[in-house]
Design goal:
This protein is mostly helical. It has 27 helices and six strands. The chain has two domains: 264 residues, MetI-like (MetI-like fold, Orthogonal Bundle), CATH 1.10.3720.10; 276 residues, MetI-like (MetI-like fold), CATH 1.10.3720. The protein is globular, with a radius of gyration of 25 Å.
């Protein structure tokens, strides 16, 4: 069997998998939204854009996405510039702490924030004790959108921060120095030189933040705000086989997400040639901050980190607070809820399910990610770029779209089989998790293969080694760090996947962790406390995984969250 034939076989297997579990569900959604028994129709789209309730939900979702994106830019840009352009004591530690918000999905953080900002929560109590207000204020009831936007900004700004640090650090500093020597002010240098050159990194992060916030299901669901498009799609799951309006909603989400992704790619690709020789071309040291500058920098990072970790702090307090009513902090503390989070039948089953699903998804992604990167970088077979594009497509396809598509195209067509999500969703959850996280590992291994010369592999081939032996003994060891880092990220983020888990897992014995946390919130006796404790266990696991991946990838960590 020739190497070319094996490459085509591998290409065919991966293309078949992506076609069956990515393209077919998307095609099914489009077909159901645009065709009925009488043929092509735009009736459901007309109903979607003429119904005042639907219009309000679409407008609110877009408003949330735009405000979250703007908020992330405002929060991420100053710290990213300081880390990339200035040196100060503790910079590496502070930069690592900026990733902490990623270890807790806003869906879980909202559990704790509901307690802090409830009518009888910490903020109202603190303001009453200070004499600022005379009675409790229902913050989330009066300003629900503010809570959703703030929660998502606090979670998503590290994605922009990672992209901006990598983009700013790669700019040739001589260009900025030349502008400064010609009399340009620091602000003008930043606006006219640094920011345009960092444009690809900025727009790459912006599109991910926009799509993520536009399709976020868990946060408004936990806050009880149902007049947004993702929650309305979730509410239509029970009618997936009978009401085409849900398909029209999902199609609209997909179109808007894909349009945002395309606009970002178009703008990034049409800003002129922003390529420079990079920082390696000039041995210029980063400028040290003065004492007032260091104080201002530490204050800025302190405020950002405190606000960003407030959901984490609130979840920890809820998980160990026994009595917390009209007090700033819990009156009593206990660790009993952590034990209950690991001893209840529901949580034990959920932990096992999430571990099993995440390990399977990460293993599948390792195989597919390495194969796709190898076919594109080393084999260079015709169609390799198409395969790479398909692998990156999930960045523009929200999880809620994939999950809804699975329900639509697999329910009823394969009754009482592992392809029927109402019978057993485990296989589809594995496919969904792996599809959603495939771009991370493809980009990680792709970067590793590009940095490793093929001379070693050519030498081994000249000595008579078979292609499989070359891959096993030469290629895999050389990209092991990238492979492991990508696998860790796939595993960790699969553990806390929200939309797929909530929509596909409809029976308690198949609940993953996130669906169990959502179910625990409805249990009257300390259900919220146990849900928060389970969230803390998951947060610790994801935090360790993120730290491990960050140590392996270093500054290349931002490539995992780039839309190109």
């Amino acid at each position: 069997m020739s190497a070319r034939f094996r490459s085509w076989m591998l290409f065919s297997v991966i293309a078949l998998f992506l076609g069956a579990f990515l393209l077919w569900p998307l095609a099914h959604v489009f077909r159901k939204a645009l065709f009925d028994s009488n043929g092509f129709t735009v009736f459901y789209f007309k109903a979607l854009v003429t119904d005042p309730l639907q219009i309000r939900a679409i407008g609110t979702s877009l408003f949330i996405a735009v405000m979250v994106t703007i908020g992330c830019v405002i929060v991420a840009l100053p710290p990213a510039w300081l880390v990339a352009r200035r040196t100060f004591p503790g910079k590496n530690m502070i930069s690592a702490l900026m990733l902490v918000p990623l270890i807790l999905p806003p869906f879980v953080g909202a559990v704790g924030m509901k307690i802090l900002f409830a009518r009888s929560g910490s903020l109202s109590t603190l303001l009453m004790h200070m004499g600022i207000v005379s009675g409790p204020i229902d913050w989330l009831g009066q300003f629900p959108l503010v809570g959703i936007v703030v929660m998502e900004v606090m979670h998503l700004f590290p994605i922009l921060y990672l992209n901006l640090v990598a983009a700013l650090a790669n700019i040739d500093p001589s260009l900025e120095e030349a502008a400064g020597n010609l009399g340009a002010s620091p602000w003008r240098v930043f606006k006219r030189i640094s920011l345009p050159l960092a444009g690809p990194g900025l727009f790459g992060g912006i599109v991910l933040v926009f799509i993520w916030s536009f399709t976020e299901l868990g946060t408004p669901l936990v806050f009880g705000y149902r007049r947004v498009l993702p929650v309305m799609i979730y509410d239509s799951v029970s009618e997936v086989g009978t009401n085409p309006m849900g398909y029209a909603q999902v199609t609209l989400v997909l179109i808007i997400s894909a349009l945002g992704f395309w606009v970002s790619k178009y703008i990034s690709g049409n800003r002129g040639n922003v390529a420079t020789l990079g920082r390696l071309s000039v041995s210029t040291k980063e400028k040290a901050l003065s004492l007032p500058g260091m104080l201002a920098t530490y204050t800025l990072f302190g405020i950002v980190l405190f606000v960003a970790t407030l959901p984490h702090i609130s979840v920890i307090l809820v998980s160990c607070g026994k009595r917390w009513f009209l007090t700033v902090l819990p009156e009593e503390f206990t660790l009993a809820f952590f034990g209950r989070a690991l001893s209840m039948e529901l949580t034990q089953t959920a932990l096992f399910n999430s571990l099993f699903l995440s390990i399977c998804a990460a293993t599948l992604d390792v195989f597919m990610g390495f194969s796709i990167a190898w076919l594109c970088v080393r084999s260079r077979i015709r169609g390799g770029d198409l395969l790479d594009t398909l692998a990156m497509l999930p960045l523009a396809v929200p999880g809620i779209v994939i999950a809804f598509g699975y329900l639509g195209c697999f329910s009823g067509h394969f009754p009482n089989t592992y392809l029927d999500p109402r019978f057993n969703p485990m296989l589809l959850l594995i496919a969904s998790y792996s599809i959603r996280r495939l771009p991370y590992i493809v980009r990680a291994i792709h970067a590793g293969l590009q940095q490793v010369s093929s001379a070693y592999e050519d030498a081994a081939a000249n000595l008579g080694a078979t292609p499989l032996r070359i891959i096993r003994r030469i290629t895999l060891p050389l990209v092991a760090a990238n492979l492991l880092a990508g696998a860790i990220l796939c595993f960790a983020f699969s553990m806390l996947e929200v939309a797929d888990s909530i929509i596909l897992a409809q029976t308690e014995r198949f609940y993953p962790i996130t669906k169990a946390i959502y179910a625990l919130m409805d249990i009257l006796e300390n259900g919220v406390n146990v849900a928060a404790a389970l969230g803390v266990w998951a947060m610790a696991l994801l935090g360790a995984a993120m730290l491990w991946a960050s140590c392996l990838l270093g500054k290349k960590m931002g490539q995992m969250f780039h839309a190109s």
